[in-house]
């Protein structure tokens, strides 16, 4: 199997409104609701894997006026019933829709089940409406609807289906398997084939994510990390350089996104924050270096591909922060390319980043993600500068391999096997906190 750069970018890079886990839950509910003859929701039952659950606990939902929760995301998706919007399914939330969704959740008609033993991304939504029962199942990717049924009858011809659960219907190119077998040199070579259409698409992602950054800087959304860093530089407490520029831009965008600002992000490998970290540090550096727009966009294309390749090893969702490590490594590689580095320096930059940030945990999507993205952006610039200056991590150290590819495989082994107990422990802590909060509210 071979893939063109267009096919890879199309599979990895897509607009998403709000955090991708609540958006995926809303998409599943919208898909189920769209099958019902009537639009009244009698009850909605949602079942999700631990990582979807974890990432949906603490992040605000676009259009929900500061409210959060997977139950509300599901209710909003069910009320909108517009699955054709994909990962922008929450785009048209208005006051009336929000009130309907709030009534549904307050009445106890929305129930969430945690599939504790489920591995891999999994969302199932069942909606009862009068005598009708509709179900939608998402597996493997946030927008990959694999099953639709109405009144126990499986629907096989819906355009919403990307594949069925056996993987045979409308089977897409197995992009994950293809990417997993690529070397960084392969990905560098692939980005040398970008045409004007590809560059225009990549520029759309830049513009989209810059709009989030501008919103975060203007409104001081979320924790206001980006805006505060900028103010500290104005006060002379932080030196303004391209490392700080990368931190400010990326953190500000994360501030806005995690606060539920009603602006889409261009995601990368299934995550909006991945998209911010894969794109914005490179764009900040390009401004500082005076590189051409085409050079910057080509570097961003490489960043997306490396981010996607790393995620095939670590998993779509896991106990490690892929926004920091996968997208950070992609950004480091892209920046090394902008700095004039060849394949060896690009590989070394990714390796340096992974050595620096390999232990960062994912404890769910939340406003504090802006802190991690600021750290990742700074490390991406530093890792690239070190690499092109001849400083690179040795294979003798820790889990580093004799190549960036081997390091990434080792990282995947840690993520997929070594971090399973860690992931469960993080979830238990978050559930304990949620239970304590519920008890205090009663």
General description of the model:
This protein is α+β, with helices and mostly antiparallel strands and 442 residues long. The chain folds into 2 domains: 19-173, 2-Layer Sandwich (60s Ribosomal Protein L30, Chain: A), CATH 3.30.1330; 177-425, Orthogonal Bundle (2-methylcitrate dehydratase PrpD). The protein has helices at 5-12, 20-34, 50-56, 70-80, 95-106, 175-180, 184-190, 196-219, 225-234, 242-258, 272-289, 293-314, 322-338, 343-357, 369-388, 404-418, 420-441, and strands at residues 13-17, 43-48, 110-114, 122-129, 132-139, 145-150, 153-154, 264-268. The strands form 2 sheets. A 6-stranded mixed β-sheet has the order 3-2-4-5-6-7. A two-stranded antiparallel sheet has the order 1-8. A hairpin with a 2-residue loop joins strand 4 (122-129) and strand 5. The chain starts with a helix and ends with a helix. The model is unreliable at 166-173 (pLDDT under 50).
What is the strand arrangement across the widest sheet? 3-2-4-5-6-7
Number of domains: 2
Low-pLDDT residue spans: 166-173
Estimated structural class = alpha+beta
Task: Please report the first level of CATH classification, the CATH class of the largest domain.
Answer: Mainly Alpha
CATH architecture of the largest domain: Orthogonal Bundle
- What percentage of residues falls in helices of 4 or more residues? 55-70%
Number of strands: 8
Radius of gyration: 21 Å
Rough outline: globular
């Amino acid at each position: 199997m071979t893939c063109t750069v267009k096919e890879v970018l199309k599979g990895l890079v897509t607009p998403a409104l709000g955090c991708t886990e609540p958006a995926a839950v809303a998409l599943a509910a919208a898909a189920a609701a769209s099958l019902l003859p009537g639009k009244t929701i009698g009850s909605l039952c949602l079942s999700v894997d631990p990582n979807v659950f974890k990432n949906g606990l603490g992040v605000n939902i676009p259009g929900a006026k500061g409210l959060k929760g997977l139950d509300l995301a599901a209710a909003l998706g069910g009320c909108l019933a517009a699955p054709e919007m994909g990962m922008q399914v929450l785009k048209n939330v208005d006051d009336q829709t929000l009130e309907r969704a709030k009534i549904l959740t307050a009445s106890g008609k929305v129930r969430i089940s945690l599939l504790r033993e489920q591995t891999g991304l999994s969302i199932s939504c069942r909606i009862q409406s009068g005598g009708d029962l509709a179900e939608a199942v998402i597996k493997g990717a946030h927008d990959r609807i694999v099953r639709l049924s109405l009144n126990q009858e499986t629907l096989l011809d819906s355009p919403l289906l990307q594949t069925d659960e056996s993987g045979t219907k409308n089977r897409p190119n197995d992009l994950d398997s293809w990417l997993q077998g690529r070397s960084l040199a392969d990905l560098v070579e692939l980005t040398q084939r970008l045409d004007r259409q590809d560059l225009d698409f990549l520029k759309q992602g830049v513009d989209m994510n810059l709009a989030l950054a501008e919103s975060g800087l203007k409104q001081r959304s979320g924790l206001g990390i980006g805006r505060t860093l900028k103010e500290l530089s104005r006060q002379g407490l932080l030196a303004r350089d391209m490392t700080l520029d990368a931190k400010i831009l990326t953190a500000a965008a994360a501030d806005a996104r995690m606060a539920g600002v009603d602006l889409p992000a261009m995601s990368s490998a299934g995550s909006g924050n991945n998209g911010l970290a894969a794109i914005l540090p490179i764009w900040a550096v390009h401004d500082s270096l005076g590189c051409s727009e085409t050079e910057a966009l080509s570097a961003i294309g490489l960043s997306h591909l490396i981010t996607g390749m790393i995620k095939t090893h670590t998993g779509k969702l896991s106990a490690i922060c892929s926004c920091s490590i996968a997208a950070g490594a992609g950004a480091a590689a892209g920046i090394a390319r902008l700095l004039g580095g060849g394949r060896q320096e690009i590989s070394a930059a990714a390796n340096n980043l992974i050595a620096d940030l390999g232990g960062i945990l994912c404890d769910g999507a939340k406003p504090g993600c802006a802190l991690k993205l600021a750290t990742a952006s700074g490390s991406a610039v530093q890792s690239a500068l070190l690499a092109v200056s001849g400083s690179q991590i040795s294979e003798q150290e820790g889990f580093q391999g004799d190549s960036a590819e081997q390091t990434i495989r080792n990282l995947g082994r840690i993520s997929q096997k070594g971090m399973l107990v860690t992931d469960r422990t993080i979830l238990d802590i978050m559930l304990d906190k949620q239970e304590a909060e519920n008890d205090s509210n009663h």
